[in-house]
Amino acid sequence: MALQEDHEEFGVGDGAWVLSEVASASHLREGPEGVRTILRVIATLEPVPLRVLASKVRLPLPVTVAVIGELSARGMTERTPNGVRLTPGGTSFVETMCGEAGHEETVGLSAALDDLVALRPQADVTLDQAKATVGTLVRRVNYLLQNDSLWGRRILFLGDDDFVAVAVARWVDQCADGESAGPTPTLTVVDIDERVCDGIRKAAPSVQTFVHDLRNPLPDFLQHRFDVVFTDPPYTPRGAELFLCRAAEAVEHEGAHCFFSMGHLDPGGMRQVQAAVSGIGWVIVEWIPAFNEYEGSSVLANVSLMAHLIATAEIAPTLRGTYEGPLYTADVRPVIRVYRCLGCSAEWEVGKGKRWITVERLKEDRCPLCRSDRFLRARQHSWTDSENPGGTRN
Predict the structure, then answer these.
(1) Which of 1, 180, 274, 341 has its CA 20 to 30 A from that of 99?
(2) Given the DSSP bridges, would you call strands 154-158 and 186-191 parallel, antiparallel or unpaired?
(3) What is the location of CATH 3.40.50.150 in the chain?
């Protein structure tokens, strides 16, 4: 059926079938996602010369010509003296699947996120939590938009103490108010921290949340369901590998996207992370240093990279079942920090195996001697099994 004549009958479900059919008929190794990318580039640049189109989508010219031939046969594109353009049916199809071309900048989103700083729970450093700045949230939403990973997508957030899902939900609402929205994405968050899930539900009721420890495999109902995964995992090589394995469990198809943030490690640690990416069956599309900024994060030196990954046909988890090894920074490089009470000068040890595992918990309990909740870090040292919990007074 020619979309030029009957495009009103097609919805997102039908569209996925059409993309698959075109990919199969043109023998496109990039699959339906490759066809979708071609259509989006045409919508943005039309009319676009074939050589320019092939360059933009990073495909050989003969392959691009074959895909355009299949799209034209279905009434979705047409050749003009100035290049390829969409037919009215093709335009409607792209808007149904991907949203309108040109709406790829999050103008005004920052103001809609001002309250998130107060809504997000205090960071739990034992879980490698560190709060991304509002500016970083805006950049992340922009990055999803620019990579066709928002409109009409099924997006899973594996850990979301930053509230990226809330930022996406508010951008969708903002676009709907201005009548420039694309097809509504479905947003799902999985996080070990019940405070995070509660806060997200309150800030954005449209987001589904599930409390789940990712040491365990994803529940069956969350496996092989998603087009896009967004994750900011524990800042250790093993943490990165485990969360990328859970992302592999989550995606439905080859060509699915994963947006992966990671603290900058030493060369040996980064080699382990990149080996895990390749071993699981992800490929790196883009690797952007210092993309993310955080509020006062000593673990990350306030920045981390953003990697855009794509699932290959061979994607499969390298870690299966329940993972019981070291995962978080505190597991891999445990440190004991000594805090001095500003009320009475008593010193109290904080960290693994101590009475208080974080300084936030020490502040909540207050100094046992004078009840002050004000402390200054005095020094730190490595953790050993022989150490005993407690504190000393100067």
Answers:
(1) 1
(2) parallel
(3) 109-311
Q: Which two tokens stand for residue 261?
A: 């943030």
316 dihedral zone (left: phi>0; alpha: psi -120 to 50; beta): beta
What CATH number belongs to 109-311? 3.40.50.150
For the 3-98 domain, the top CATH level (class) is: mainly alpha
Instruction: Read off the pLDDT of each residue in 214-238 and give the average, rounded to a whole number.
Output: 94
List, in order, residues 6 or more apart from 71 with CB less than 8 Å away: 22, 35, 38, 39, 77, 90
Eight-state DSSP code of residue 8: G
Both structure tokens of 234:
């524990």
Q: Distance between CA atoms of 163 and 26, rounded to whole angstroms? A: 40
What are the DSSP calls for 161-230, one per residue? Answer: TT-HHHHHHHHHHHHHHTT---SPPEEEEEES-HHHHHHHHHH-TTSEEEE--TTSPPPGGGTT-BSEEE
Q: Whole-angstrom Cα distance, residue 321 to residue 151?
A: 33
Q: Model confidence over 47-97: pLDDT tens digits?
A: 999 999 999 999 999 999 999 999 999 999 999 999 999 999 999 898 888
Which tens digit of pLDDT belongs to each residue from 347-362? 998 887 788 888 888 9
Contact (Cβ atoms closer than 8 angstroms) between residue 349 and residue 314:
no
Query: Is the preceding peptide bond at 88 cis, omega within 30 degrees of 0?
Result: no
pTM above the 0.85 mark?
no
The C-alpha R_g of the chain, in whole angstroms, comes to: 24
User: Which phi and psi (to 5°) does residue 28 adopt?
Assistant: -80, 115
The token pair at 5 is: 């004549």
What are the start and end residues of each CATH 1.10.10.10 domain in the chain? Answer: 3-98
Q: Report d(CA 29, CA 310) in Å as an integer.
A: 13
CA-based nearest residue to 307, from 339, 343, 275, 277? 277
The whole-angstrom separation of Cα 38 and Cα 257 is 16
pLDDT tens across 158-187, in order?
999 999 999 999 999 888 665 556 788 999
DSSP summary character for residue 263: P
Selection from 156, 171, 159 nearest residue 113 by Cα: 171
